[in-house]
Amino acid sequence: MNTATGSRKLTIARAMAEATAQEMRQDPSVFVMGEDVGPLGGVFGNTRGLHEEFGAERVRDTPISETAFIGAAVGAASDGMRPIVELMFVDFFGVCMDAIYNMMAKNTYFSGGKVKVPMVLMTSTGGGYSDGGQHSQCLYGTFAHLPGMKVVVPSNAYDAKGLMTAAIRDDNPVVFMYHKSLQGMGWLGTEKGATVATPEESYTVEIGKASVVKEGGDLTLVSLGAGVHHCLRAAKALGEEGVEAEVVDLRSLVPLDRETVRASVAKTGRLIVVDEDYHSYGVSGEIIASVVEHDTSCLKASPRRVAYPDIPIPFAPTMEQWALPNADKIVDTYHQMMGQ
Amino acid sequence: MSTAITVPEDLWEGDNEGVITAWLVDDGSQVKQGDLVAEVMVEKAQYEIEAPASGVLTIAKQEDEVVAKGTSIASLET
After folding, report:
1. What is the interface pTM, i.e. ipTM, of the complex?
2. A190 vs chain B: nearest CA distance in angstroms?
């Protein structure tokens, strides 16, 4: 299906599917496995069109047995294939974590570098659409904490396509965490800022490079995934008060681009980290530590964070919305930082 | 000449309303006949809207707006 020439935009769901299709066309070792990735096209739309083009041999629907099919993907990757395997909700990592972090993440190390595991584990994150505490988590920190695998989190379709292409071509295992509210799937929330101009030709976005998506000299806002869009809205509101916020989109958690974060805070002297993952022991703490263990002389105020409270995610829509990060909370946190 | 982009009567089964979930081209862009321009969601299923003609797009219904079969969601100026 052609989308419009010139100013063509894609949703993240379409961008992921397009990157996957382009790699499958030029590399016969790339194949896809997961629950409902076949004729349905993925519950979150990111494998649409693949089964039709490549057939059931290369786009394989699996039973609900993550241990089996993620373990099978590790075996296939170790033997020369490039599997893309989907864990439908990251929340269900518990049933297959041995395959992920003892096999996928460590086989290269255990074999003294003799075995490569070039696979992509894609998995949905995030809430906001009232799907309860076992379908709404981000768990960015959980995966980024464990050595041996790269972890990427796109905030828009351009980065999603480039990061997916880079992930498929990478000889290391890459966990590709996509936020459900950015997929362009309506019932999961609509974030217009994620649907952006995306080239048809294949390209990569380097894994491990953050992006300064808005420049400013008064305050650094660091986030990832859906949080980037909250930050951009907060930056706009702060701009109306005459405060120029810089917004850093991490894009990659492993490797983590600490240099871009440090350079921004060195310029602004103020840091707020926005993370939809749980407050404690997560990305927000790691970002703040990365700054303060490097240099505290640049800081004009103690760094702050706007993160998910350390509670199971509520099902009730009003309670869930109360707990989620948003632009108002970011603006309020800045005012508290300034003693206003 | 102006051509309306309407939600096709046969796009989905039944008379349920849908919601525009994404415009895949910017307002004011030039599009070609057959280009995929928008997505509409009906009960968690997504449907594609193609341009019925070539022309410059003027969007009438934005993301998150409710549409029914036959609703005019945009026009194309040729």
Report:
1. 0.81
2. 7
Chain A environment of B24 (Cβ under 8 Å): 3-4, 8-11, 14, 195
DSSP of A62-123: --S-HHHHHHHHHHHHHTT-EEEEEEEEGGGGGGGHIIIIIIITTHHHHTTT------EEEE
Q: How confident is the model at residue A130 (pLDDT cuts 50, 70, 90)?
A: very high
- Residue-wise pLDDT for B10-47, tens only, equals 999 888 999 999 999 999 999 999 999 999 999 888 89
A155 Cα distance to chain centroid: 7
Q: Could you give the CA distance from residue A276 to residue A274 in angstroms, rounded to a whole number? A: 7
Within a 13 Å sphere around the CA of A140, how many CA atoms are in the beta-carbon half? 35
Q: Residues B55, B60, B65, B69: is their CA dihedral positive or negative?
A: negative
**Cβ count near A98 (within 10 Å):** 12
For A37-61, the pLDDT digits (tens) are 999 999 999 999 999 999 999 999 9
Structure tokens at A170: 């990478």
Identify the H or E element spanning B38: strand B36-42
DSSP secondary-structure letter at A231? H
Interface-testing mutation among B19, B24, B42, with chain A (most A C-beta atoms within 10 A): B24
